[in-house]
Please model this.
Amino acid sequence: MKTSLFILGMIIFSLMTMPLLGYSPGTYAQEKKRICATMEVHDKLLKTVPAYKDSRAAIENLTRDYLLRGALRTEIVKIPVVVHVVYNTPDQNISDDQIKSQIRILNEDYRKLNADISIVPSVFQTLAADSKIEFALACRGPEGKPTDGITRTKTDVASFTYDDAVKFTPSGGMDAWPMDKYLNMWVCNLGGGLLGYAQFPGGPAGTDGVVITYTAFGDIGTASPPFNKGRTATHEVGHWLNLFHIWGDDCPGGDQCGGSDDVGDTPNQECSNPGCPTFPHVSCDNGPNGDLFMDYMDYTDDACMVMFTKGQSARMDAAISGPRSAIMSSDGLKCNGAPPCGQGSITALAFVLTVYGIGKMRKKSIRTK
Ligand SMILES: [Zn+2]
Model:
């Protein structure tokens, strides 16, 4: 009897403490905190894909060299997007209008045209950047045929996770379109409260792109508070353009002020900020202004993340001039028979040659966490 009571007590104790000990399915869904699995994917690729580590080192070297040159891009670029809707239930098969609402939001956020930019505290307003990046649904498919930039796939998979199953037809998902021509965005049901994840530049072609759960995509239809303003895609595309989390991914851990997002104008920040903090939130001796928690690369709710900084925009510029350059000469948005220009492809080829050893490579900047 005593043994039974002890075991029963242990079970109750375990159930009470489980949410405090780490991730368990449903925990985050209940609390509605932003969760992004990009760093988990990054860590996995570092361990399992040997070329990825070298590729990441080369990209960080290119980024540093680009920023040192100081010749930032002035023209606007437009990125062709394909949205792969992978649905198990009818409500997961989101409407064309919901998809278009997300594209509109991306354009507003990356051009600093979002109305809620006004909530940025005055001390941070000069940091806010127009990234001069726009997005549009592709009108020309991989085979050159007309498309609306949307694919729809019925799946038997009830919920996906960040194992990339959604990116392959045999595992219940949809194969990627060529990464040198399109930004692939998968929309599906992600389990456990996961909102989305992205693959940084330099990863395998077949899994390049971003994945967003169907309840955090766009601002109509199935979009659900507090992630119903399309900012999950803004955040994940930021990763796709080589931005790290603003707190430097050093939390939880030992020296939580030691990590960096490798951006010069973002304040050093201890941990991610959930919800909607009150200004200022000071950490890591960054007072009096504190964390830049209204940045898209923090973990705040959609209504409270409203800006990229000029430093982040410059890092995205570097990605566009290097590992993402091929997509700038994509024919995915050329729908009147005009052939693509080849300049971007030449730049991309030079990058590939650099990554795979035809050129000297410095590795000291590699980020391994
Ligand atoms: Zn993230």
Summary: Residues 2-21 form the longest helix (20 residues). The longest strand covers residues 77-87.
